[in-house]
From TrEMBL:
Localization terms from the record: Cell membrane
Chain ranges passing through the membrane: 44-65, 91-112, 118-139, 191-212, 224-242, 254-275
Keywords: Antibiotic resistance, Cell membrane, Cell shape, Cell wall biogenesis/degradation, Hydrolase, Membrane, Peptidoglycan synthesis, Transmembrane, Transmembrane helix
Extra facts: Bacitracin is thought to be involved in the inhibition of peptidoglycan synthesis by sequestering undecaprenyl diphosphate, thereby reducing the pool of lipid carrier available.
UniProt protein name: Undecaprenyl-diphosphatase
Species whose genome carries this gene: Planococcus plakortidis
GO molecular function: undecaprenyl-diphosphatase activity
Length: 276
C-alpha cells in the first residue's frame, strides 16, 4: 500500500511539474512551494527526480518542435554548401541558440550550488514570482514584427542573460526568455519558438551534470516505478501545457499569467511570515 501511494504521489508530482514547466510561472518555484506548504517530500534522489521530469519536458518540446528542429538541422548544414537566404536564416538561428545558451551554462556551472544554498527558499520564490509578474505585465501588449531572419547577436545575448537570471527559483525560464525577446521587438511566434528551442541545450546540459548523482542513487531499483510514473506524468502534462501555452501566446493573453503571479507571490510571502 505504501508503494502504491508513493507511485501515485510521484505521478502527481510529475503532472504538476509538467504542467508548470512550459508556462511562465516557474515550475521549480512551484515545486518549492508545494514541498514547503503541503509538506511534500521527494523520496529517493531529488537529482534523479529532477532529471527525469526535466527530460520528460524536453521530450515533449522535441515532439512539438520536431519539424522546426529538422529544418534547422538540414538548412544549418546545407548553409556550408548553399548560401541562400533560407539556409543563412536557419544557420544563424542555430548560432544564436548556441550563443544564448552560454550565459546560463557559465552561471549554472559556477554558481548553481550557491543559488541552491541561499536562494532556494519560499520567500525568494514569492518575491521572484512578483518580479516575473511585473515583467509579463510590461510586455503584455507588445506585438513585435521581427522574425527569425531579423534576429541579431545582441538579441541572443540578452535572451541568454535572461535565461541565466531564471536560474533563481521563482523566475520562470520561459517567461524570462519570452519577455526578453518580445522586449527586443521580436514577434510572439519567434519568441516562443526561440525560448523552447533554447530549453533543449540547457536541459541536456543539466542532464549531463546530473549523471553522476543518478549513477550513485542507491534508491534507483526500489524507486524505479515511482520514477517512471513521474516521467510519464511530466511528459503528458508538458505536452498539453505547451500546446495550451502556444494558443495563449497566439491570442496575446500573457496578462493572465502576470495576474496569477501578482496573486500567488504576495500570498506565498505573507503565508511564510505568518507561519514563522
Amino acid at each position: 500500500m505504501e508503494q502504491l501511494w508513493l507511485t501515485i504521489k510521484f505521478l502527481l508530482l510529475g503532472l504538476f511539474q509538467g504542467l508548470t514547466e512550459p508556462i511562465p510561472i516557474s515550475s521549480s518555484g512551484h515545486l518549492l512551494i508545494a514541498q514547503y506548504f503541503l509538506d511534500v517530500e521527494i523520496e529517493g534522489s531529488t537529482s534523479t527526480f529532477a532529471l527525469l521530469v526535466n527530460s520528460a519536458s524536453l521530450l515533449a518540446v522535441l515532439i512539438i518542435y520536431r519539424e522546426d528542429i529538422q529544418r534547422l538541422v538540414i538548412n544549418g548544414l546545407k548553409f556550408f554548401k548553399e548560401k541562400t537566404p533560407e539556409t543563412r536564416r536557419d544557420f544563424m538561428f542555430v548560432v544564436y541558440l548556441v550563443v544564448a545558451t552560454i550565459p546560463a551554462g557559465i552561471i549554472g556551472v559556477l554558481f548553481q550550488d550557491t543559488i541552491d544554498d541561499y536562494l532556494s527558499t519560499v520567500v525568494t520564490v514569492g518575491v521572484t514570482l512578483i518580479v516575473t509578474g511585473l515583467a509579463l505585465w510590461l510586455i503584455r501588449n507588445m506585438r513585435g514584427q521581427r522574425k527569425d531572419g531579423n534576429m541579431t547577436m545582441k538579441d541572443a545575448l540578452i535572451i541568454g542573460g535572461a535565461q541565466a537570471v531564471a536560474l533563481i527559483p521563482g523566475i520562470s525560464r520561459s517567461g524570462a526568455t519570452i519577455v526578453a525577446a518580445m522586449a527586443r521587438g521580436i514577434n510572439q511566434e519567434t519568441a516562443l519558438r526561440f525560448s523552447f528551442l533554447l530549453f533543449i541545450p540547457i536541459s541536456l546540459g543539466g542532464a549531463v551534470l546530473s549523471i553522476t548523482d543518478i549513477v550513485n542513487d542507491d534508491n534507483l531499483s526500489t524507486m524505479a516505478l515511482p520514477y517512471i510514473m513521474a516521467f510519464v506524468g511530466s511528459l503528458v502534462a508538458s505536452y498539453f501545457s505547451l500546446k495550451w501555452f502556444m494558443n495563449i501566446m497566439a491570442k496575446g493573453q500573457l496578462k493572465y499569467f502576470a495576474i496569477y503571479c501578482f496573486v500567488v507571490g504576495p500570498l506565498v510571502v505573507l503565508a511564510w511570515f505568518l507561519l514563522n
